[in-house]
Amino acid sequence: MRLDTFWRSSAARSALLQSAFIAAIGALVVTAVLVAQSNLRAQGLTSGFQFLWKATSWDMNFAVMPATPESPYWWYIVVGLCNTLFMGLLGLTGATVVGLAVGMARTARNPSVRLLGTIYVETFRNLPLILQLYFWYALSTNLPNPRQAIEVGGTMLTARGIYVPGLNIAYSAAVLAVAILVVGGIAIVWLSNTRKVRRMDAKQRRSRLGLTACAFLAAALGAVWWGYSAGTNIFTMPQLQGLNIRGGIRIQPEVYSLAFAISAYGGAYVGEIVRGGFKAVRPGQVEAARALGLSSWQVFWRVQMPLAFRAMLPILTNQYVWLIKATTLGIAVGFTDFFMVIASSITHSGQTLEFIFILMAGFLLVNFSLAAVLNHINRAIAIKGDQIGTGS
Q1: What is the pLDDT of residues 248-258, one digit of tens each?
Q2: pTM score, whole prediction
């Protein structure tokens, strides 16, 4: 191609400019990496990821998986990520439950119930999350000491944590049993949406799903039995012995105060999303369902809830992703989440750039996965055409 012909071609000019832009970005990144490596060498620090196999030499105050100071950095990163997922699961579940209740209250016919829902939303939505976190943490650490513990139905509330009855099994067995139940729940949801199962009649579908649920439940019970020590009580109850409480399962103040804060704060936003979803259901669709002779519960469960859920799911996806990121505030009260593990690892190892890269990669992985699953569900249940409009 001749030079004058090349410059007259808009496609060629566009390709040249885009190539130059990409080359400039690449040169900028390479320069930044070289400068960072030079500065690290000047400070006596080495770059790379060889440190991941070194022992951390510091302890975690909370871990959903076994971890000791002799554990390598890569294992602490995995445990920190699991802690974040654990807190995210607690926070999202709590926010969803609270949000459903608040959203239903905000759409109730009773003025007093609507007022309660409004007060809740305006209170918890307009207070910073970290302020609420400090409130719950201060409240939990000012509970009585173990000798004056508040006992409610076998549960003991103290400043050292909440002690609840539990199973007397090995920690690894409990984690395995919970993992089996979570995988089982996901498998049942996936199986119920497969084309083969949907084509079955109701009796066959219930039988297939029931057998699957029983299989996973049996596997979870097998894990519990594997972790049970013969000759001991299968249940462990918290009891005061001396100056402390023995037995039961201790939930640390850092854990439940962060879960409370995320649930209460996120519940206010989820409540407004739920209210908006129900408002998006056309009154004519509800009236049509009532005209068919459906009861109030059937109208709610079979017409209003499915249509409202479709309307609210895209916004819920953004809210859930935000709440997962909000778990990083746990560092303010000492909860060992993914962010705190990375921050502590940087302090002890000095590998700042590598750990920040791991931190970004970890949150991208978690939030991309969550958004992908919810977007897939949204596409699967989306109604084709204009079946949802703006309600009055």
Answers
A1: 888 889 999 99
A2: 0.79
